[in-house]
């Protein structure tokens, strides 16, 4: 502070000797947002904010804006009164405000005001009396001087103030008036109590000690730490010497020019007394030296805006804040006094003549000539700080020729040469003050060039002048004392300079010119911009200042240059003037400020009006370096004088604070949702609910000298990707932040643009909604776990239920499958019953109907099928017994038992020439079995071996004994079983569908019974088989009887059951006499062909006997074989059984009817079932008839004859179609379409000599043989006859419908031989062509139509 006040005193000391040299003082008032221009108190809090008390509320200032606090009607949380007297800060950094109506406490955290309360005896009262002063000690206690309630002590950690009672004699009173309160460096607390005088308060004793009663009104007091108390009132200033107890008035004879009321007193560290007066400004009195200076008010720059000063306050950065009445706030800032501004003073004749500066020139005495733009010339006597002005006076020829002084130069004779724009060149005689006018006449154009702009004297003392408006360049001829045109080519020269080599350089509005003074062979460098400054620095770098293209570093050898512009840091692209300081830095004036450029590192430092410059805009030519090293730069508001070496960086590191915080558009101070709320300046973490995550944060670096030079950046971690530049906006907004943790980081620069380490951070926690909160997730987890438990429990129940359902469904499916198999089983049984019945009923019917001798052959068939029926009935009984009977265990010699079974099949083996062998590893093997069930098992296995073994093969039955078991093997060399069958072979009703096996199918219960019976004996049945090579069935039975616990055992064998004999009898074939077929020796025959398809050989034989010899009979044992025979033999009719392996009768019928070559062949289905479903399938398959077994042979013969008769009807239809006769016969749609297609094709080729049977077959889409058979079947004709009949039909139509004669009709019908045509026509129609023509043409010519 000492240096600061010295600076102020220096400035003030020159105030009275300087026309316009005032300290840099700037103003803040209601225009800047201050609530009122009557400022009564100033205070700076801990954070750095400045608080201003006014007549109209409290103001907080952050360097950018004022926040105003006022009284609000009926709002107890607002300021109690707008008339502020004093401001102080408590230990918790809340603001205590003294007003005319009491003391308020401003809670920084909540933004609310509350009354200061104090303990008065036994009651609590509000400090509602006028407050005259506030003071704070180093312990954080605040002392409140009231007008009527005495001294109140507001303790550091207390919420209720304590009233200090004043002892007046023997009485203690709290009703006394304290007019002023101050503390000194010795921590004394000084009071001035009305009517009691100066007092001292001792906090330890809580006692007020009266010192001296002056019997006068006092406005303020101030201890000076030199043993004196200074007192101010309406009468002036007084000093009270504590040691001498002497009161002395201070006035003019003491060196203080004071005649006004003293409003405030303060003593600085240098023992200088600052006296704020009402009407006299500020008086600064040096207590030790006894001298004073004064800072007055006035209209001139740098003077106070009001003479009534209420307070002077020094902030932490040594700025002086001066509070005035009516004049707002005045600030003296040392950081803004680096540049001295000299400008015009309208109220003083000795001031600068104009603020629009164009040129400078220093004389030999160090004084400065100042050329202005339009106001003439000023001479500045720096010693006396006086200006002498010169201007053009039209009535006086020896005055300045024009007031626009664009350039000046002093010659070696100290004469001042001036280039004036509009007045040519002027020479000033300083001794006489007269001006001599030098015209510039252009001999080339014959025009007087008046617009002189640039003037320069080179090292050869040549004086050069450049003119504008296409004017030439002139040089002074000292001999003739005239300016002569140097070169007409050098036009519009606006800048001239000389480098160290003596080369003269000139600049124009578009080019840089290297002047050849001797030969006038100049070099032009086209720059396309105005060259305003030319300068070579100490290091030989050649710099060009341009208007619009920035600063150029020009290479004089190559003509190339490097550019520095605004984007590189230059304050503006118009580089008007260039000066170099002792540190080799270039100072460049522009239209946008002043730049200091350091070529060594390419860095710019820019200065502006806020740094103390006259303005941001400087002028052409207005720059000069004085002999003293000072720089002059002129602009539009005067000129600046400074020493470059004194322009030091402004290195104050301002604190960066959050100034505003709004959550969901609610200010932080007003948001009551925060617990333990801190001040917004100290808050470092906030937690937001998800639905209020709308955040607005204001911030500021408290830098009061150059706040607009501070740059900011912010970055929200967790949201932003990089640092953001807010520009001039010092508020950052984020809306709808999702839940999560964020960190808002804010940083700033200093006034020099350097980023500081003052980063401010705010942690932001956005809470999730309740349904996404921690406890919600805990509940979710519990709920989820419970749901999982319930779900698993439910799934467990569902699985059990599903298992039960599936089990029930499986049982249902099994029952359904079983029922289907049973249905199939009984269907097969019925089929098997009906087939033997057919072969029994019909022969017996023939015997009964014919009294002739009985044929033994027929009785043999009847007997064999009767035995077959008995066998089927026995199998059904066995199937029933397998479910109903228990085991009857008896001891049995297994070898003897198996031999008995073996001998039962020996006759069948001999009849079929099958090698049937028996072997055993032991002669006798005792075993416990149910003889009947084992006999049935062995029978089924051996009968299957015979069934599936061809004649001449071999079968073997062998017994092998082990220690604990006996194995019985039944081996054959039959067709074998495929590997895909597996254990399904033992399933109930399962029937293996193997090719090339016996046509006698079973019911699928034999092996099922074997497996069941053996398992009842706790044995095992298995097999191994190779398709085409045979099968080996293996029965494993346990020895002993331990495996039959609790079972009744018979030690003696029962009789052989009757079932075995019956089953054997059913499988014993009687000798069969072969049917002698009548063999025809005819090469061709017209007998109908009939195909019988049945897998039962006896049925085929019986049906065959019915149709021989009237038919040609073909036989097929399967559907596949039958289909092949239909395609190869083309029978006239097909009789097929429905139930057959692989391809059934219905499928065979369908394939025949779907084949266009075979579809005309009638099909009769034979079935054992009379169900409508079987008949419907047959009809859908295209069957022509349906006969149920057992059938009547006469019915079968009649059905066949009827179907063959329908084929004759088809042939008749063809004949009538050819002969054009009426016919009501009904034929199938397929046959009719076939006939019509063949007729159309033939008619299309009537005149085609190459038409042949092959062409007809190709177009119909059939082979030659198939076409022949179908045509023959339908028409009864060969293909050639068929084609000839169609041609004759066409001829008949031509005879009826045309006027052609016989020959013409014959040729048009495709006949080339007339005789042949006549013969064939007569053969078909029964009339010769001429007769046919006479008989039918006349009626038809009358319009009759043919009845077809």
Automatic annotation (TrEMBL):
Q: What is its EC number?
A: 2.7.13.3
| Residue ranges crossing the lipid bilayer per the database entry | 774-792
Q: Can you give the residue ranges of the Histidine kinase domain?
A: 828-1041
Reactions performed catalytically: ATP + protein L-histidine = ADP + protein N-phospho-L-histidine
List, for all copies, the residue spans of the domain called HTH araC/xylS-type: 1236-1335
Among SUPFAM superfamilies, the record links this protein to:
ATPase domain of HSP90 chaperone/DNA topoisomerase II/histidine kinase, Calcium-dependent phosphotriesterase, CheY-like, Homeodomain-like, Homodimeric domain of signal transducing histidine kinase
* Alphabetized CDD domains for the sequence: HisKA
Residue stretches making up the Response regulatory domain? 1089-1204
Q: Which residues carry this modification: 4-aspartylphosphate?
A: 1137
- Asked if the record carries the keyword Membrane, the reply is yes
Name the enzyme's class.
transferase
Q: Name one GO molecular function term.
A: phosphorelay sensor kinase activity
- Keywords, ordered alphabetically: Kinase, Membrane, Phosphoprotein, Signal, Transcription, Transcription regulation, Transferase, Transmembrane, Transmembrane helix
Q: Where does the signal sequence lie?
A: 1-19
Is Cell inner membrane there in the keyword field? no
Q: Which InterPro entries match?
A: CheY-like_superfamily, HATPase_C_sf, HATPase_dom, His_kinase_dom, HisK_dim/P_dom, HisK_dim/P_sf, Homeodomain-like_sf, HTH_AraC
Q: Name one Pfam family in it.
A: HisKA
Which PANTHER family does the entry link to?
Answer: HYBRID SIGNAL TRANSDUCTION HISTIDINE KINASE C, TWO-COMPONENT HISTIDINE KINASE
Protein name per its UniProtKB record: histidine kinase
Provenance organism: Pedobacter steynii
Q: What is the lineage of its organism?
A: Bacteria, Pseudomonadati, Bacteroidota, Sphingobacteriia, Sphingobacteriales
